[in-house]
Amino acid sequence: MSQIDTLPPLREVIRDHDLQARKSLGQNFLLDLNLTLKVARTAGDLSECTVLEVGPGPGGLTRALLVAGARRVVAVEKDPRCLPALEQIAAHYPGRLEIVQGDALALALPEIAAGGPLKIVANLPYNVGTQLLIDWITGEDWPPVWQSLTLMFQKEVAERIVAPPGSKAYGRLGVLAGWRCHATLAFEVGAKAFTPPPKVTSAIVHLTPRASPLACDLKALEKLTAAAFGQRRKMLRASLKPLAGDAEDRLRSVGTEPTQRAEQLSIEEFVALANAFAKA
Ligand code: SAM
Questions:
Q1: Domain count across the chain
Q2: Ligand 1, atom 21: closest residue by C-alpha
Q3: One domain for residues 40 and 138
Q4: Is the CB of 33 under 6 A from ligand 1?
Q5: Minimal-distance CA residue to ligand 1 atom 12
Q6: CB-based contacts of 49, cutoff 8 Å, min separation 6
Q7: pLDDT tier at 137 (50, 70, 90 boundaries)?
Q8: Is the beta carbon of 61 within 6 A of some atom in ligand 1?
Q9: Which helix (H) or strand (E) holds 100?
Q10: Claim to verify: residue 195 and residue 160 sit in the same structural domain
Q11: Model confidence over 162-190: pLDDT tens digits?
């Protein structure tokens, strides 16, 4: 396996800084720097960008982002134990790595994006990953401050993000992501690539914002998809009844058969329906 930089191997970093993985922080570290480089390259040209990395941990992906040419990396880590290891990387790449200790759920993206075009690349902690994605794709302003998201999820979550209508994995996440973004599953990563290995396979998802997504009442879309997929085996006339007594009329008003089930509806139909239900 070829070296990507002259910093110490990650196993040594973890040993020297006593970074035993903590489950409560979703810590499954990637130690193969060639693999983290593959993740970084999935995000495309980084040379003009600020890259936000959530959860750098011992810094395997951080190092790859810097090797891949990121102009500036802002790495937000909740676990203070990781900071000394990250400081070593910052010293190796003067002026290019900013380390922030804190909770990514409380981040102000516009402030980070003020430094130039922003891409987000992360091996996300499983316990907050979906919430972060939803926050990033449901912001009020669109197009968003970020140019792309390149994110590691459990494979099952990745499949839900990119799921097309009619598929088993199609649901709320797929509708939200597909409405506002182009989303692709870039590649899978086996459990053995992580230390400690998780129970499931993971996958990298790459999302770019649609320039002009269909106009939609976001709150209505969230409520609608929650109700429709919450009871996905039921016909829409039944699953949407709790939202509006005249659900059947509203379904017909946008040309949707009330006997259809959630997974049969395209994203365009969900958007039209959300707008019809927003007029309640
Ligand atoms: N990027 C490293 C890698 O690929 O090896 C670590 C990835 S590990 C799956 C997730 C990282 O996110 C851990 O370092 C963990 O401490 C950090 N983390 C967990 N919750 C966080 C939060 N709310 N905000 C920021 N970082 C968090």
A1: 2
A2: 78
A3: yes
A4: no
A5: 55
A6: 70, 71, 72, 116, 117, 118, 119, 147
A7: very high
A8: yes
A9: strand 97-101
A10: yes
A11: 999 999 999 999 999 999 999 999 999 99
Q: Which of 170, 187, 209 corresponds to the end of one domain? A: 209
What CATH number does residue 224 fall under?
A: 1.10.8.100
Answer whether 0.90 is exceeded by the pTM: yes
- Across the beta sheet with 146-154, the strand order is 97-101, 72-77, 50-54, 118-123, 146-154, 202-209, 181-189
Q: Which atom of ligand 1 is nearest to the CA of 53?
A: 1
With bands split at pLDDT 50, 70 and 90, how would you rate the model's confidence at 115? confident
Tell me which residue range forms the domain holding 114. Answer: 10-209
Q: pLDDT, tens digit, for every residue of 155-167? A: 999 999 999 999 9
Contact between 21 and 28 under an 8 Å Cβ cutoff? The reply is yes
Comparing C-alpha atoms, which of 3, 56, 68, 7 is closest to residue 32? 3
